[in-house]
Amino acid sequence: MTAYKFIETSVDQQIGVIELNRPKQLNSLNRNMVGEILEAMQSFDRNDEVRVILLVGKGKAFSAGADIDEMAEADSMSLELLNQFADWDQIPLIKKPVIGAVHGFVFGGGFELALCCDVLLAADGTEFSFPEVTLGVMPGAGGTQRLTKLVGRAKAIEWLWTGERIQANELQKHGVINRIVSPELLREEALRFSNKIASMPPLAIRMIKDSVNKAVDYPLYEGMQYERKNFYLLFSSEDQKEGMKAFVEKRKPVYKGK
Ligand code: CO8
């Protein structure tokens, strides 16, 4: 397992766990940390032992956002030359399911990272916010775009303009969070859910993610053409043969991800 400075990784059965590990700074995200998160995700994405990636945070918060100390002295040209968001742009390209289990504070860049997850579980009492406006800036890693697509313009602009804290149940009502669980059960429930997805045929899971992501950006007709190609593609997998054969033979299928 690679040694990282700002995250910890482990494999629990078929779940690749990435734990943000900068708890004294409330897991605020510096550039190297985002690089490590991406590297770990890409490595799990290529690892045959891993079927699902689970993202969690150590300590009292999932993440209080980008590292303000690192950003305070930045100027426009240095951010452009750093290509500040190059790593961020690759996170949504991960093919395997990414489940986020968040707690405490999910602010700014931390909220943007959570919005990159395919499924989001939150501990009861988790607070979310885009406080960038109070620092004289705005989200830069997809926050204005993803939040608006998820909750619609009215609430998005209100939350982004005020920077106010949003409770987990409010976000659940708007379809951003899948489940709210008690803080003590968050990890257990996240692993249980991840295991459920890991038990499904991996190629079907992969193609569903690919198709659902297209639904966000494509017009309906183009999206449906894309879906159809993925549907046909799955008929060249061994798992499709196995799944349907097992149904006919009235037994449990054994999926290999081939
Ligand atoms: N950056 C750097 N350090 C932080 C951050 C942060 N975002 N958040 C907390 N810390 C540090 C604090 O400075 C403090 O350090 P120290 O102990 O050395 O003084 C330690 O973490 C603990 O924090 P607090 O004492 O403040 O803890 P509280 O429980 O009292 O408060 C809060 C928790 C409310 C979350 C508070 O810490 C806070 O408001 N933090 C800042 C939140 C914020 O504004 N986040 C947005 C940052 S901007 C952003 O995310 C832009 C995204 C752009 C794209 C991403 C590019 C990477």
- How much helicity do the residues have? 40-55%
Strand order of the largest sheet: 1-2-3-4-6-9
What is the rounded Rg?
19 Å
| DSSP strand tally | 9
Q: What's the helix count?
A: 12
What sort of overall outline do the alpha carbons produce when their principal axes are compared? Answer: globular
Biggest sheet, in brief? Answer: 6 strands, mixed
Q: What are the low-pLDDT stretches, counting only 5+ consecutive residues below 50?
A: none
- Average pLDDT for all residues: 97
How does the helix and strand content classify structurally? alpha/beta
Give the helices and strands as they follow along the chain.
EEHEHHHEEHEEHHEHEHHHH
Describe the structure.
By secondary structure, this protein is of the alpha/beta class. It contains 12 helices and 9 strands. It binds octanoyl-coenzyme A.
Topology:
Elements lengths: L6 E6 L2 E6 L10 H16 L5 E6 L10 H4 L4 H7 L3 H5 L7 E5 L2 E3 H8 L3 E5 L3 E3 L13 H9 L1 H10 L3 E2 H6 L5 E3 L4 H13 L3 H16 L2 H15 L3 H11 L10
Parallel strand pairs: 2-3, 3-4, 4-6, 5-7, 6-9
Antiparallel strand pairs: 1-2, 7-8
Keywords: Lyase
Organism: Sporosarcina ureae
Pfam families: ECH_1 (PF00378)
Descriptive keywords:
Enoyl-CoA_hydra_C, Enoyl-CoA hydratase, ClpP/crotonase-like_dom_sf, Enoyl-CoA_hydra/iso, 258 residues, six-stranded mixed β-sheet, three-stranded mixed β-sheet, binds octanoyl-coenzyme A, lyase, alpha/beta
